[in-house]
Amino acid sequence: MADSDRAAGTSVSLTLQDRPRPERADAARNRRILLDAAARILRDDGVAALSMETVAAAAGVGIGTVYRRFGDRSGLAYALLDQHERTFQAGFMFGAPPLGPGAPAADRLHAFLHRCVDLLSEQAEILAMAESSSQHYQTGAYGVRRRHISMLLDEINPELDATYLADALLATLSGRLFLHQNTDDGMSADRIKSGLDQLLRGITG
């Protein structure tokens, strides 16, 4: 296993890094009911229809229950993305190369960035909703992605400011930016990947 994967350790979800203790069975069941209701709204009516009120109505609970569980709309969005993020983390930390261990760092970083674009093609709207939180940079997922990119960059060239560059690369992979590029400017996912390749060549030489 590569150094980046040893340091990253086990997968970390999209929730805040200071995570609560494991849920009781009844609390976990109630959370699942709320998330299932939210997922149905998202599938049938889109992100615009997703609110604390609509989730409460669909789940047959009081709106206070939804706020206590998720805090706000961005917290709800993070919870909906959580399993997708865990699957992605498993891929880049433990999966097959070039995304996972066993390939050169430059190839792994290239595969990582391209996979992020693929995920944005599927999840940009809900991710943009999640990113509205002021705590976005404190989420576990952001920290894991940042650490993974910075360790790969450090392996490519130890003289790079890997932490700063990791933040810079992640900024190009926001849901809001992708929606602007893809929807407003008509950039395809392939064009965005090509631009990332150019950016990466400029960074790594």
UniProtKB/TrEMBL annotation:
Gene3D superfamilies: Tetracycline Repressor, domain 2 (1.10.357.10). It comes from Phytoactinopolyspora mesophila. Residues 1-27 are annotated as: Disordered. This is TetR family transcriptional regulator. InterPro entries: Homeodomain-like_sf, HTH-type_TetR-like_transc_reg, HTH_TetR, Tet_transcr_reg_TetR-rel_C_sf. Keywords: DNA-binding. Residues 28-88 form the HTH tetR-type domain. It comes from the Bacteria. GO terms for molecular function: DNA-binding transcription factor activity; transcription cis-regulatory region binding. PANTHER family: HTH-TYPE TRANSCRIPTIONAL REGULATOR RUTR, POSSIBLE TRANSCRIPTIONAL REGULATORY PROTEIN (PROBABLY TETR-FAMILY). The lineage of its organism: Bacteria, Bacillati, Actinomycetota, Actinomycetes, Jiangellales. Residues 51-70 bind DNA. Residues 18-27 have a biased composition (Basic and acidic residues).
